[in-house]
Design goal:
Length: 437
């Protein structure tokens, strides 16, 4: 007999069915036993009278512990007295598929009953909480909406190596590892390899994969391993086209989430999912500095001039809502010293942007430098030599003008659901002080 998902039980009233799930609660009364059993989609009440016919099952339930898993067959009956969906399962067979110990190390139903570090230590229990399970259903919907969009646009999905022979991009903040008799590194991003695909004539590529950053940061939005949604595409005339594409991508993903989970997100997280409109507002960095100074009295500290920092990002979002009535803001015209060497420059200005959402940067995108001689010069200016030699080879034999960006899926989910920390959003968080479980 096929297991029925609890969300579909309304279609099976009056029928003999099978369910599988966790035991959430047990009430063992004088004449009857009640169990609340759950799966990821909902709960159902199991009602078992105490009588001679049920003696075997009564004894089993008497010794059952909450969080054990069960397989139950029986008649699904309507009962208006049952508060939980006005239905109950009257069992004819109960099988305990696993027993849980009596005392849980974590009361996972209440997120405030334990410190976050304790919850992360027992993440397998913490993830049983409804909000956490909904979070990953939402994340799946978001990624699927964006994936479907890029596939409709003719993109090719690639899978690039995560072990590389030279330190990528900046030459710093990489994890070293032993690769047989030589040193290797974990990739910070697929940037070099997705550009290799462009040089190979793939034209439009994307990848959804892990990336690694050896940043000793303990902020709410950083982690040492995260999931990145990377985009790169050819034959562009301006980074404006990259921004246009990202607008469409985010709209597609957020629209999918709103359609599938808008109501439960509002109920569980108290967040209204908003599908943004085009175009997203755009502002040059210097103009933003001026606006933040005039409106909020904010001045960028010396070491961050030419770039953004956490405080300016928060104010930028506030400015975007107050000025443009829009949750997103593109910021352009960063200083070359603050941007990667492979960003194309015009009159010394990198042709790229950051995208700010809900007070946080979610993307750095750009038109790439595709001309070999210019790329070599810019790499040299950054002091990069042997580390990027293999990458520069991609551009020796012709490469189309192209651009792209990357979105951190975990950070997007954090901002979408307003959880306040990547530790809450990631399936298993990795940071400077956490490598387990």
């Amino acid at each position: 007999m096929k297991t029925i998902a609890f969300k579909d039980l309304d279609h099976y009233l009056g029928q003999t069915i099978r369910i599988d799930g966790f035991v959430s609660r047990i009430r063992d009364l004088k004449y009857v036993q009640f169990m609340i059993v759950r799966d990821i989609s909902g709960e159902v009440q199991v009602t078992l009278e105490k009588n001679e016919e049920n003696q075997k099952w009564n004894e089993l339930v008497s010794h059952l512990t909450c969080e054990s898993t069960v397989k139950i067959e029986g008649l699904l009956a309507y009962n208006e007295k049952v508060k939980l969906r006005h239905m109950e399962l009257l069992p004819t067979s109960i099988e305990v598929t696993s027993y849980s110990e009596e005392e849980l190390p974590l009361q996972y139903q209440d997120a405030h009953s334990a410190l976050l570090d304790t919850r992360l230590n027992y993440r397998f229990l913490d993830l049983r909480r409804q909000a956490n399970q909904l979070m990953f259903q939402v994340q799946t919907s978001l990624v699927q909406g964006m994936r479907d969009f890029v596939l409709q646009q003719g993109f090719i999905e690639i899978h690039t190596p995560k072990m590389i022979g030279a330190a990528s991009e900046s030459g710093s903040e990489v994890f070293k590892l032993q690769y047989f008799d030589r040193e290797a590194y974990l990739a910070q991003s697929p940037q070099f390899y997705k550009q290799m695909a462009i040089a190979a004539g793939f034209e439009k590529v994307f990848e959804i994969a892990p990336a690694f950053r050896a940043e000793n940061s303990n902020s709410y939005r950083h982690s040492t391993e995260f999931t990145s949604f990377d985009i790169e595409f050819s034959y562009i005339d301006s980074y404006e086209e990259v921004m246009d594409f990202e607008e469409d991508l985010l709209i597609a993903g957020l629209r999918r989430v709103k359609e599938q989970y808008g109501k439960p997100i509002k109920e569980v997280f108290g967040v209204e999912v908003t599908v943004p409109t085009k175009p997203f507002p755009r502002i040059k960095l210097a103009d933003l500095y001026q606006a933040l100074k005039e409106k909020y009295g904010f001045e960028m500290n010396y070491e961050d001039v030419g770039d953004m920092n956490a405080q300016s990002e928060k104010l930028a979002s506030q400015y975007a809502m107050e000025t443009y009535h829009h949750p997103f803001l593109f910021v352009t015209d960063y200083h070359a010293s603050k941007r990667a060497f492979y960003h194309l420059r015009k009159h010394g200005v990198p042709q790229g942007y950051d995208l700010i959402w809900k007070g946080c940067e979610i993307t750095t995108g750009a038109q790439r430098e595709h001309r070999y001689a210019q790329l070599c010069q810019q790499a040299s200016e950054k002091g990069l030599g042997e580390d990027v030699k293999f990458y520069l080879e991609f551009f020796k034999y012709g490469c189309p003008p192209h651009g792209g960006f990357a979105l951190g899926i975990d950070r997007l989910t954090m901002l979408l659901l307003e959880t306040g920390s990547l530790k809450e959003t990631m399936f298993l968080f990795r940071g400077p002080d956490r490598i387990e479980p």
